[in-house]
Amino acid sequence: MSVFPFAQPPTVSFYLIVYVLTLVLHAIFMTYVLAGSLYLAWAAVFRGSEETPRARSAVAKILREWMPFALSAAITAGVAPLLFVQIIYRQEFYTSNLLLGWRWLMVVPVLVVGFYLLYVVKSRLISNWPLPVRIALVTVISACFLFVAFCWTTNHLLGIQSARWPQVYESGQVVASLGALTIRLAMWVAGAFPCMSIFVAWQLRYYSDRDGRPASQVGGLRALSMVASVGILLTLACAGGYLATLTADTRSALLGSQGGPWMMAVALGSVVQLNGWWLMRKNGQLSTSSLSLVTGGCLLMLTGAGFLRELLRFVQVDASGVARNAKSAASVGGFWLFVLFTVVNVGLMAICVRLVRPALRTDAETSDQQTESPTV
Ligand code: HEM
Fold it and tell me: Could you give the CA distance from residue 215 to residue 222 in angstroms, rounded to a whole number?
């Protein structure tokens, strides 16, 4: 079977598959934080009507309440792909880190600042702060996470441009094409909104059911279905634009027998999601069947995009080097230990969610008009 990565040596296929699946898990939580912070910044600047300010919407409150948890989950879920990328693309990953130097190291302090500010934005304290200060706060938070996304994209692109490394070392000019980097980053940012919308839709559904107020879903549903649908169309447009920046050889690998099925997975996942959101908007409720439909569509789109992203890198790096790395890694034991700790960690995370859920302040799920809660 020539579909990527199944035609590769077994050790290479194994590491590439677990890498992409763990990266999809990272993306599920990372998109909540990236799109969530941008949504809060937008809701703070474009406030909507005085009666129902966007920053008091159920969507905004759920985001403020859960983003610190989502960031912890994004960091935790980022560790596994971080380990696998070093196993598979040892030289490429380390070289791009070194060439980026201090710019790469900045990811940690910026992430820490963003993390702490998420707790500030969640606190009641800030409701007394002047509006411009509150707007500045959410803008700084979204800028932190955009910067982190920018660093991951720059690092990735530098890793697959080995021919440029000596010149980058001399000039310090790490970005080859600002156009390609911008459209790739825009693709990730646009793609973050459909994923975040599904997550928040399930949360909105949970709280409105728990409090027996299905009506409170309506406002959030309208906003989320719009954000998700526009996000999907923008992601596909950016993906098309990014495809145009690639060489003919790379494009043919993506569109050929290796990548074609994953392209179809992305297209099918997008259509299923657009259809699911249209159904929910038409019926005016977050039904379990439609929510499951958009969730399945989103996972299909993320997985397809994950394998296409990897195929795009694989055809541009030294495949024999990857095979050597995978073979030597596979000769080192510890697989079942990895499985054991994966199970333990997932169990611990489930307990954490269970523990914090009831404590969630009632105001987070109150409808637009009623809340006394802190607003931005
Ligand atoms: C809110 C914080 C974060 C954001 C917004 C973010 C965003 C992203 C984005 C957009 C990419 C894809 C880059 C590309 O393909 O162009 C990415 C890849 C990745 N991220 Fe995250 N990330 C975050 C935090 C983290 C953390 C804390 C870790 C590790 C603990 C991590 C691990 C990874 C790994 C391993 C990759 C794949 C790198 C590669 O394949 O070259 N991320 N991230």
Answer: 12
